[in-house]
Amino acid sequence: MGLNLDDKKAVVAEVSAQVANAQTIAVAEYRGVEVGDLTVLRAKAREAGVYLRVLKNTLVRRAIAGTPFEGLTDQLTGPLIYGISTDPVAAAKVLNDFAKGNDKLVLKAGSYAGNTLDQAGVKALASIPSREELLSTLLGVMQAPVSGFACAMAALAKKREEETAA
Q1: Global pTM?
Q2: Hey, which bits of 80-127 come out as E strands?
Q3: Which of 23, 24, 35, 72 has the fewest CB atoms in 10 Å of its CB?
Q4: Alpha-carbon distance 12 to 70, whole Å?
């Protein structure tokens, strides 16, 4: 059943609110994907904090008009599922990871920082580590000299104890 005018306005307002806070939009064609698989995809998107929804393309065109994501307008054809996230890589990563295991979901386009991305661009964006991964790597790099110094001091103390005991 189609949406009436009030429902369409509500959908456009909801998507516009999501787009206003978003850094990335990733778009994939879901033709042939089974309902159970889409349910799994939605659960993964929720865990990653990604707004994931199947929307009418005309409503999305209205929602992104006048935003940095307006360049996507030409790519919005066919049955599409939209991933919108405030994390720069989350939407692309969720859709790309799911597409690796399900060949019927095809990445189509995306937009990040005002730049329109093709399929290869979305895959490249998805390969970038997330913010949490980058922070944990940075923390490990920062702790390495301190822990190395502590280990060296412990070894030196043990060596001196052995020398005094001998």
Answers
A1: 0.76
A2: 80-85, 106-112, 115-117
A3: 35
A4: 14
